[in-house]
């Protein structure tokens, strides 16, 4: 009986070991991994987002549809997800290193008809006036679109409608208590121009006197002579002391005329 027990234990051990080795050797299907960037600007007094039109040839999904700029991670060129996002941003706009914030990750077996995929999303704000857009070899076109017109009706490729909606909500929420809209302006800029950026993003007016006090008390601006103000009249010009980080204010903005 002792020999039988020893023999059975040995067989069980060999069987378990064999199963583990088989499990290790089995190749797992890897998901598609991409990085997308939501690039905001203000043009024509409206919040706009950069979109690329997907090519209509080949076997690529969503041919001819508009989408957020992005693409696959280059394991040789990108040392991190943020590096990939910055590379995509520079490829499309020529802007090297503005403020960049991670929005979140989206992944499922249904968002891409080619198979299981995950995308890591960043968002940024840039001055759009002097940007030269580049569509790249894998896009049919690239253009700025008003955010409200993109979201209603929805029609972007993949799940980019959901991603854009989340980015807009994050942006408007953070604008209430941070210096984020300053990244939308070319330097130097005036305080009224900065206030207008806040109002465009928030979609409502902001009290002028309270705004000026908050901006100057935040100590994130420095005077740099004069800039063209309203009616091309010179006014005090400002620029950001640090273009890579935010200032957080102690309370949110009040609408114009509110207490």
UniProtKB/TrEMBL annotation:
It comes from Paraburkholderia megapolitana. This is ADP-ribose pyrophosphatase YjhB, NUDIX family. Residues 30-170 form the Nudix hydrolase domain. SUPFAM superfamilies: Nudix (SSF55811), Winged helix' DNA-binding domain (SSF46785). GO terms for molecular function: catalytic activity. InterPro entries: NUDIX_hydrolase-like_dom_sf, NUDIX_hydrolase_dom, WH-like_DNA-bd_sf, WH_DNA-bd_sf, WHD_NrtR. The lineage of its organism: Bacteria, Pseudomonadati, Pseudomonadota, Betaproteobacteria, Burkholderiales. PANTHER family: ADP-RIBOSE PYROPHOSPHATASE (PTHR43736), SLR1690 PROTEIN (PTHR43736:SF4).
């Amino acid at each position: 009986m002792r020999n039988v027990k020893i023999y059975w234990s040995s067989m069980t051990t060999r069987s378990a070991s064999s199963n583990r080795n088989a499990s290790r050797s089995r190749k797992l299907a890897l998901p598609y991994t991409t990085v997308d960037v939501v690039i905001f600007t203000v043009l024509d007094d409206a919040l706009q987002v950069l979109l690329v039109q997907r090519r209509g040839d080949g076997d690529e999904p969503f041919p001819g549809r508009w989408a957020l700029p992005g693409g696959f991670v280059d394991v040789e060129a990108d040392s991190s997800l943020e590096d990939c996002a910055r590379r995509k941003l520079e490829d499309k706009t020529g802007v090297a290193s503005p403020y960049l914030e991670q929005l979140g990750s989206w992944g499922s077996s249904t968002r891409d008809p080619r198979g299981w995929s995950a995308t890591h999303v960043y968002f940024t704000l840039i001055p759009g006036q002097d940007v030269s857009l580049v569509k790249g070899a894998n896009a049919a076109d690239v253009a700025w679109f008003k955010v409200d017109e993109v979201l209603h009706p929805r029609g972007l490729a993949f799940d980019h409608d959901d991603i854009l909606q989340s980015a807009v909500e994050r942006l408007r929420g953070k604008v209430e208590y941070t210096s984020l809209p300053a990244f939308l302006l070319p330097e130097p800029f005036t305080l009224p121009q900065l206030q207008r950026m806040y109002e465009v993003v928030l979609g409502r007016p902001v009290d002028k006197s309270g705004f000026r006090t908050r901006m100057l008390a935040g100590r994130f601006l420095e005077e740099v002579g004069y800039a063209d103000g309203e009616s091309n009249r010179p006014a005090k010009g400002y620029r950001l002391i640090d273009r890579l980080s935010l200032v957080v204010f102690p309370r949110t903005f009040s609408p114009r005329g509110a207490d």
